[in-house]
Design brief:
The protein has about 290 residues and is of the alpha/beta class. Helix content is about 45%, strand content about 25%. Helix 1 crosses helix 3 and helix 1 packs across helix 4.
Length: about 290
């Protein structure tokens, strides 16, 4: 077995089929199948169930997948560990909510890049729960999330606090109480978004049922539809203030609710800590919102 075999195994799991893994890695499907069969023969176990509906990890396969992710992660990080500090390079993969990416990452990443020009950064925007799952599966090195994170071997560092407000079009009637929005459409990110979860919790607490719901995958989509009067949303005050120069928006404070929500940076408690991740954490510690 070599590191390429583990890469193939990981890709098969993540794509869900031998054919998709072959296309992703530019191999033939027969080559992928043979590599998996060789792994199964070496460990004398079955890693995948094969059926008419596709493949599925066996219990042993699930256990091996966790081990394979750790092995691949350590292999990738070994190159960083052996570099001289002054010549540190590599790729840092960071997950983020769209709101954090829009509000805070431009300043943070500019400062980080000036100090570490040889380190490339990939930012993947998703709702908090998706970023937590990506971190656990070694797809990213760290993530900015909101809400409690009760996961073993996940370390948390506070980043910023955001005040949540309801955002509407500029001609919307005043919202003094959540019952004032019972006839409104709530616009939000898809499931897994912490702000959506907070809003739904508030509405449930007060027994409020919105008229309709709309989901969007982008912040611009949400803001554009809110400005057009299609519905309302709950987002950080700083987002509303950022977009109010370009869109006809109004913000509404809900003083009866706990609206101060922390944003955390989370990362794994790895046996071997990545040097470039540590540099990034140091930048977070010195970051001050504008």
């Amino acid at each position: 077995m070599n590191i390429n075999d583990l890469t193939i195994f990981r890709t098969v799991v993540q794509t869900g089929s031998f054919s998709k893994a072959a296309a992703t890695l530019n191999y033939t499907q027969s080559n992928i199948s043979m590599k998996i069969q060789n792994l199964e023969a070496m460990y004398n176990t079955t890693l995948f169930y094969r059926g008419h509906r596709g493949i599925q990890l066996t219990t042993k396969g699930e256990q091996f997948y966790e081990v394979a992710l750790k092995m691949l992660h350590l292999y990738e990080k070994s190159f960083e560990l052996l570099q001289d500090d002054e010549n540190s390079s590599g790729v840092l993969r960071i997950g983020s909510m769209e709101t954090t990416a829009a509000l805070h990452l431009p300043t943070l990443l500019t400062t980080f890049h000036q100090a570490h020009e040889k380190i490339d950064i990939t930012i993947l925007t998703s709702p908090s729960q998706y970023n937590i799952d990506r971190l656990i599966n070694y797809e990213i090195d760290g993530a900015f999330v909101t809400g409690p994170v009760y996961k073993e071997n996940i370390l948390i560092k506070e980043f910023v606090n955001e005040e949540l407000v309801i955002i509407t079009s500029s001609n919307h009637k005043p919202i003094l109480d959540l019952r004032d929005i019972e006839d409104s459409t709530v616009i939000s990110f898809r499931h897994g978004c912490s702000y959506r979860a907070v809003f739904e919790h508030w509405l449930h607490e007060d027994g409020v049922q919105p008229k309709n719901r709309m989901e969007f995958g982008t912040l611009d989509g949400i803001i554009g539809c809110v400005a057009a009067g299609l519905g309302i949303t709950l987002l950080p005050r700083a987002i509303a203030e950022k977009y109010m120069a370009a869109y006809p928006l109004k913000l509404h404070e809900i003083t009866t609710k706990q609206s101060q929500i922390p944003t955390w940076f989370i990362y794994r408690k790895d046996e071997v800590q990545s040097p470039i991740l540590q540099y990034f954490i140091e930048s977070i510690e010195t970051y001050h919102p504008c």
